[in-house]
Amino acid sequence: MANFTDKVVLITGISSGIGRATARAFAAAGARLVLGSRDAGAGDALTAELRERGTEALFLATDVTASGGLEALVAAGLRRFDRLDVAVNNAGVEVTGAIDGGDEAAFDRAFDTNVKGVWRALRAEIPALLRGPGGAIVNLGSVAGMRGMPGASVYAATKFAVEGLTRSAALELAPHKIRVNAVAPGPVATPMLDRFTGGHPEVMAQRVPLGRLAAPEEIARAVLWLASDDASFVTGTTLAVDGGFLA
């Protein structure tokens, strides 16, 4: 596992699933953590768990759709640790339905969280990262952002947008030695997938060549690799962790 001893890592959307697994993985690798989630109870519980294991961790209830929320999270991290080395923009929501169905409120909620939330996060994180000699940003995309997804057109559109933000930010920040990449998970055993499939995640497992869902920890390991010095010449790319789904 990559070594993040004394590195400061900010992660959004840590209340469950991939975000929680990623926070635990960075903690195990020695990082100091700045954690954000709308779910204050889950965030406090995870932070207490990590502190009991010896991790320096700060949690702030954070809504990525709220103006100033991400700036407050970054500012709290800087007050506590005086630096930021890695940012993982994981917060997101699912939305299902055909193009000619659904409602405009669901569309707006999905784009406000999945796209504008990442945009807000980048705007808050970049000045902090520029204070150091370099750094890394990992955005959470999806295989839905790399192919069409019938029945989830709006969700797919948000993840295609994250692809564009990731690649463009990578080009803008390359002169400053800040790498920007994305991870595109395939079907993962998370509460989001349960909701996405109406409580039948096995339907998605049947579409994966490896014959199963990913564990959140498998996605977390990919995030750590992209954020680590082992990926020092990787920027502007999306790593699909999908069991062969796209193939």
What does this structure look like?
The protein is built from nine helices and seven strands; from the N terminus they run E-H-E-H-E-H-E-H-H-E-H-E-H-H-H-E. With 247 residues, it is of the alpha/beta class. The longest helix is centred in the middle third of the chain and has 21 residues, at 153-173. A seven-stranded parallel beta sheet has the order 3-2-1-4-5-6-7, sandwiched between helices. The mean pLDDT is 94. Strand 5, helix 6 and strand 6 form a beta-alpha-beta unit. 43% of the residues lie in helices and 15% in strands. It has one domain (8-241): Rossmann fold (3-Layer(aba) Sandwich). The protein has helices spanning 17-28, 40-52, 69-81, 104-114, 116-130, 153-173, 191-196, 202-205, 216-227; strands at residues 8-12, 32-37, 57-61, 86-89, 135-140, 178-185, 238-241. The two termini are 27 Å apart.
Mean of the pLDDT scores? Answer: 94
SSE string: EHEHEHEHHEHEHHHE
| CATH architecture descriptor text | 3-Layer(aba) Sandwich
Number of domains: 1
Q: What distance separates the N and C termini?
A: 27 Å
| Uncertain runs | none
Query: At the fourth CATH level, what is the homologous superfamily?
Result: NAD(P)-binding Rossmann-like Domain
Radius of gyration computed on alpha carbons? 17 Å
The number of strands is 7
